[in-house]
Amino acid sequence: MTLESHRIAFESNLEFPLDDFQRRALDAIDAGDSVLVAAPTGSGKTLIAEYAAACAISRGTKTFYTTPLKALSNQKYGDLVEAHGDIQVGLLTGDNSVRGDASVVVMTTEVLRNMIYAGSEVLDELEFVVLDEVHYLQDRFRGAVWEEVLIHLPAHVRIVALSATVSNAEEFAEWIQTVRGRTVAIIEERRPVKLTNLYAVGEKGNPDFHLLPVFMPDPADDLRPNPEAAKLDGQPTRDRSASRYPRSGGQSPSGRLFTPSRVEIIQRLADENMLPAITFIFSRAGCDAAVDQCLASGIRLTTREERRELRRIAEARTAMLSESDLVALRYDAWRIAFEAGIAAHHAGMIPPLKEAAEEAFAAGLVKVVFATETLALGINMPARTVVIEKLSKFTGEHHEFLTPGEYTQLTGRAGRRGIDDRGFAVVAWSPFVPFEQVAGLASRRTYALTSSFRPTYNMTANLVSRCDALEARHLLGLSFAQYRANSDVVALEDQLEIIGSLLEKERELMVCDLGDFVDYRALVAGTERPGDSAKRSSVENALAQMRPGSVLRTKRCGGRCVVLRHEGGRSGTRILVLGADSTLTRLGPPDFETAPQVVGDLDIPTPFAPKNPSFRRALAGRLRALKLEGEDANGDSAGSNQRGKKQKKTPPSEEFHPVSECPRLESHLRAASKADRLTKDYARLERRVQARSDNLGRMFDRVLRVLEERGYLDGWSLTASGESLMRINSETDILVADAINTGIFDGLRPQELASIASVFTYEHRGPEHRRPPAPRWPSGDLAKRWRAIERHWNSLRSDEEDAGLPEMRPPDPGLALIVKAWASGHDLSDVLDLTDDLTGGDFVRHMKQLVDLLRQISVVSENPQTKESARSAADLCFRGVVCASGVTAQ
User: Residue 145: which of 233, 243, 69 has the closest Cα?
Assistant: First the structure.
């Protein structure tokens, strides 16, 4: 089938005609380009990924479809099976492995990252990688994985990146192009269904609360705040916190305004045909309470036929669960609400119940879902109305106000394409949030995508294994974090040029015909010593002779650098150089202890464009490839000419200085004073440039230092311990490696190994003032091993503090007793009785994380008994409610 006929066949099967942005994206794929598609939720971005998958199927190549969440992977798998048939589509998430050799394989991003580091041969057949929800790369815990994938994928693989609407999409696409080749940015800011923002506020004396437009109607879509709503900020408030149904309280019992209750809002939406609706509450307990409140108020939103279909969905989704599991999960109470068309959706629920809510809501059977913000990421649940109860949320540590990006993500679900001509976003009034802030949040539709990339212990071990030192630093320099920092550097470089020009003028005014004014001024100040002037002169003479292309050795630039430009004047000679990591630096006499020596020469690419990233990368590549005698793998030489050793000082000379007789001495001194101020400004800006230019490099050096001190590195080589660290993917990677390498997991039965391993995956979450419960250990032997793990963590914390690295989170034994009980075969109700603050969903999530780690231990450990024990432990834990999922082998 030709490219044209394939495209025609694909479009003929679509439910809707292509939008302009979709057509442009498909054109880019047909032209052989990678694409970044930034568009609102529900606009049809997924169609572009499906086209890439169809192209790979027709050509006999492969597409990997990656998502940030296992639940989202499961959903995309089902969608792609429906579109292309079960034989063509596979799934790899850690929990599920279905046809991993299929033409289209859905997986979490971490699975792909691990395949890249393992050098999987299947990558040779790969044509496309879809990065769904790619804006997830700013997640501070997992975001770096997206950048690792983009940097390390084989060059022949094309990228289809799907993102929410971000304000710097062009910048992000330009970065992808620097690391992946030709990339087209497709940006669509228009929503497929128009959104009306509403403000829900109750007023004393009115039978119904007000639903006021946040913005005035305007044909030009000029978002002008509604003056009627703005007037409310000046009115007193009424306290209705003692009402039957909880709501935000006001400040004054005699006030006129109040926050409508959850029940009142749902009843109003039902009366005005604004359902189905998703209400975001940001509290699991709040979501569950809202469901109970609706039931208690008598709200029923379904017909008899709908209730029958809802019961069928519920029974099908929970078929794998035992009767005792269902009792522990309060299934009967959940099903009553579910059949009434009301459901909760949050991380405290087990996957089958969340999947039932998703299926029923998408089918129009469940009319109201009370959800936390976890629903906002990717899951296909469009609504007619989105309600945001509060504009702040608790992060697990403190409360934060919603960002414009979060507001956009949440309200992006309002309006179903092909069903609604308009979607609604309802924000509940609060006495603590002025209307002006609500309008400002709703009017800012985009946010800037940032990077969370930083070198971890596992990442560093893999870089050492795969690259030499210069190449590793080069790869770190390719990150989006460094790319954004380099953009800041360009602006700072412009400021440096301006200040440098002013400084040069003042230095020229300092030049005296009768003698060396700098020497005279230092002598008068008592800071100059005999010999310093001669040394400075020799360094300045050497710098003055430097020419573009001269190669020097210097530790400040990571081992070697090439001269780009000579910036000498009548005094204070400086040179602009490029390091092997593509960083620009200015060097002057204070940067050298002795006169620098030229150790090689390079041809400078033309046109000369030092601010252009492509120019810098090309020249840095030549610099890294240049062979210099006497240089080790890190680019250091035995005879560095950097400053570092203190020189022996001699007393100051008291000879008469000829400059003291100069008639223009006052002018020289004024110029010197201005030059001092400019020099300080210049140095301050240079420090900012250096901090941005090599921040990742410095952190990388600190990680290397910790790894070497703890026995994972020997120079630029991995030790046996380092080889194990390279294969451990965990937030606590180096602590797990410590435990494996010191035998903490050895000699344990599977149930015991699962219990002790849980300290590396579990983390107690809650308010800062609430201390986690004291650990309870099933045996004295496990308690002893726990104390050994604590010693490892304390040692690591000390090493990290010495190196200037952020502290790794401590291991947490809070789940150890529960894991031992579950691995020993106890029912869900038994293990949940052992804790007061663990829901069924929390338990399932923690157990899946533990199972993943146990499987890694079974692969990494060199002890045969430990390997088998870890494998058995994973099997014992992955049962019942833990392995229940909507995905089955087709």
Answer: 69
Q: Which token pair is 813?
A: 């034994």
Compute, in degrees rounded to 10, the torsion defined by CA atoms 789, 793, 796, 801: -170
Rg value, the chain, Cα: 32
Give me the amino acid identity at 803.
Answer: A
Return the number of other C-beta atoms located less than 10 Å from residue 215's C-beta: 19
Lowest mean pLDDT among 271-280, 447-456, 590-599, 727-736: 590-599
Phi first, then psi, for residue 644 (nearest 5°) are: 165, -35
Tell me the C-alpha distance between 139 and 143, whole Å. 5
Alpha-carbon 189 to chain mean position: 23
Three-state secondary structure of 176-218: HHHHHCCEEEEECCCCCCEEEEEEEEEECCCCCCEEEECECCC
d(CA 682, CA 695): 19
> What dihedral do alpha carbons 555, 561, 567, 570 form, nearest 10°?
50
Cβ-count burial 299-318 (b if 16+ within 10 Å, e if not):
bebbeeebbeebeebbeebb
Tens digit of each residue's pLDDT (9 = 90 or more) over 667-700: 888 888 888 888 888 888 877 776 666 678 889 9
Helix (H, G, I), strand (E, B) or coil at 211: strand
* Cβ proximity of 340 and 300 under 8 Å: yes
Half-sphere exposure of 699 (CA within 13 A, CB side): 20
Count the alpha carbons within 13 Å of 436 in the hemisphere toward its beta carbon: 3
* Distance in angstroms (rounded) separating the CA atoms of residues 759 and 810: 9
Tokens in use for 880? 């019942």
For 604, other C-beta atoms within 10 Å of its C-beta total: 19
CATH number of the 3-187 domain: 3.40.50.300
User: What is the spatial distance between Cα 881 and Cα 321, in angstroms, rounded to a whole number?
Assistant: 6
Q: How far apart are the first and last CA of the chain?
A: 28
Residue 61, both tokens: 């190549």
Q: Are strands 126-131 and 158-163 parallel, antiparallel or unpaired?
A: parallel
- Given a contact cutoff of 8 angstroms between Cβ atoms, the answer to whether 509 and 671 are in contact is yes
How many angstroms separate the CA atoms of 211 and 429, rounded? 10
For 468, the 3-state DSSP assignment is coil
In contact, 140 and 452? CB cutoff 8 Å: yes
Strand partners, 67: 108
pLDDT of residue 630: 62
| Residue 656 near residue 473, CB atoms below 8 Å | no
Give the Cα separation of 202 and 876 in Å (integer): 54
Closest C-alpha to 36, from 194, 151, 188: 188
The whole-angstrom separation of Cα 326 and Cα 828 is: 9
**Percent helix, strand, coil in the chain (nearest 5)?**
50, 15, 40
Reference 206, options 238, 230, 233, 234; nearest CA is 238
Where does residue 362 rank: exposed (0-12), middle (13-18), buried (19+ CB within 10 A)? Answer: middle
Three-state SS at 716: coil
AA letter at 271: D
Q: How do 368-371 and 717-718 pair as beta strands?
A: unpaired
- β-bridge pairing 399-401 and 392-394: antiparallel
The residue written with tokens 């990388």 in the block is: 700
Which CATH class for the 727-882 domain? Answer: mainly alpha
Distance CA 142, CA 108 (A): 11
Nearest to 481 by CA among 448, 460, 454: 454
Q: What is the pLDDT of residues 101-142, one digit of tens each?
A: 899 999 999 999 989 988 889 999 999 999 998 888 888 888
Tokens of 848: 């899946």
Determine the 3-state secondary structure of 352 from DSSP. Answer: helix
pLDDT tens per residue across span 472-517: 888 888 888 888 877 776 667 678 778 888 888 888 888 888 888 8
Please name which of 153, 180, 159, 178 lies closest in space to residue 618, comparing C-alpha atoms.
178
pLDDT band at 885 (very low <50, low <70, confident <90, very high): low
| Percent of the chain residues topping a pLDDT of 90 | 42
